[in-house]
Amino acid sequence: MNNQAAFDLVRNPLKNKGTAFTQEERAAQKLEGLLPPVQETLEDQIGRAAAQCDACSDDLARYIFMSHLQDTNETLFYGLLVSDPDKYMPLVYTPTVGDACEQFGHIFRQAKGMFLPLTLKGRLDEVLANWYTDDVRFIVVTDGSRILGLGDLGANGMGIPIGKLALYSAAAGVPPQYTLPITLDVGTENQEFLDDPYYPGLKQHRPENDEYYAFVDEFVQAVEKRFPGCCIQFEDFNIHHAEPLLEKYRDQICMFNDDIQGTAAVATAGIYTACRSKGEKMSQQRILFLGAGSAGCGIADLLAQAMQAEGIDKATAYSQIRLFDIDGLLTKSRADSLEDFQKPFAADHEPTTDFAGMIRSFKPTAIIGVSTAHGAFNADVLKAMTEINDRPIIFPYSNPTKKSECTAEEAYAATKGKALFASGSPFPALEVNGKNIEPSQGNNVYIFPAMGLAVYATGAKRVTEDMFLTAARALAETLTQEELDSGLLYPPRDRIRAVSGHIACKVAEEIFDANLATVDRPADIAAFIKGMTYVPSYDSSMAAAAAH
Question: Among all residues, which ones are annotated catalytic?
Answer without folding.
Answer: 93, 164
